[in-house]
Amino acid sequence: MKMMAMILAAGLAFSSAWADDNLPTLGSDSHTPSAAAAAQLKQAPIADLAEAKKARSALDELIRAYETGNIAFIQSRLSPSMIGYQRFLDGVGRDSNLMKQIRIHLFDTQVTAGPDVAMIQTGWEKRFISVASFAPELYSGRSLFLLHRDQGEWKIANMSGDNLFASQSGVLGKITLSAPSIPGPCPCATILTVTLLDPDMAGQGSAIVEVLSTQGERETLTLIETTPGRFTNTTVDFDIAGGFVPGNGVVEGTAGSRILFTFRSLDRTPGSNRPPSYVLKTLRVGP
Q: Using one digit for the tens of pLDDT, what is the confidence trace for 4-57?
């Protein structure tokens, strides 16, 4: 026992001596950054609110130019290396001809800015009057913009989500029907209006919507563009009686049980980095 106490005392004495030898003396610069490290810290730029405000102001200027059709200014604020550069400008030019009195409202906007790069996430609403119908329209979406500083100016380098600057905006399409269901009683014959809203397809003139039923019916409808991105067919015949013939141009079914009809359209650019997918709408016929 006495031997163990002596060993423990010797160990403590060694530890104390080692600590005394390795502790930095007061006033020493062992924890002071070297001159090179201090210079690097001094030169590293730090993002602040001022840069975030400048990036947001650059986006606002781009929006005002889009509203007034100032394509030259928009082109000067785009990075030439931006993916889809020419498609973007083509869409802006098309909108300038098809839409008037464009007004864009941003909401829920968040800006993250660094020394030379900024990211802006925002929701938006775009209101305008269609030249084709003189009717007011409303599109909405959410976008992410990546900006970079080029010779002292903030420019758009890339974007994702819904593109508010062009009709080919990547906004998810939508199908609507003039009636939510056909309750019956059947046999019955009804005429419905089918509408597809897909800003990505603005200017194409027409769109295709497929109709499929749980009984096996399959038809293809042609919708005509009435305003940019809005396609309508007001004379879709539903004949629920004694059977159906796929592909004859009339949506048919056999009466006596509930039938579900699915309307679908392929949206090739649904936005928000989503892959091409079908836009769907279901109609119930019967009880």
A: 444 434 444 434 443 444 444 444 444 444 555 444 444 444 456 888 888 999
Q: From the CB of residue 124, how many other CB atoms can be counted at a distance below 10 Å?
A: 19
- Whole-angstrom Cα distance, residue 13 to residue 6? 11
Examine residue 187 and say whether the peptide bond preceding it is cis (omega within 30 degrees of 0).
yes
Helices (H) and strands (E) in the chain, counts: 5, 13
Which residues are bridge partners to 136 per DSSP? 129
Distances in whole angstroms, Cα of residue 35 to Cα of each of 15, 26, 41, 42, 50: 34, 20, 10, 10, 30
Query: Domains, the chain, ranges and CATH?
Result: 49-161 (3.10.450.50), 174-285 (2.60.40)
Distance, CA of 87 to chain centre: 17
* Side chain identity at residue 65, one-letter code: A
Do residues 207 and 225 make contact, with C-beta atoms less than 8 angstroms apart?
Answer: yes
166: nearest Cα among 277, 272, 63? 63
Helix runs in the chain, H state only? 2-22, 35-43, 49-68, 71-76, 85-98
The two beta strands, 153-161 and 136-150, are: antiparallel
Q: Are strands 218-227 and 259-267 parallel, antiparallel or unpaired?
A: unpaired
Residue 28 dihedral angles phi and psi, to the nearest 5°: -75, 160
d(CA 259, CA 9): 92
Instruction: Report whether 281 contacts 176 (CB < 8 A).
Output: yes
Pick the range with the lowest mean pLDDT from 155-164, 244-253, 265-274.
265-274
Q: Are 150 and 85 in contact (CB under 8 A)?
A: no
pLDDT in tens, 172-194: 678 999 998 988 788 888 899 99
State pTM to two decimals: 0.49
Which residues are paired to 192 by β-bridges? 236
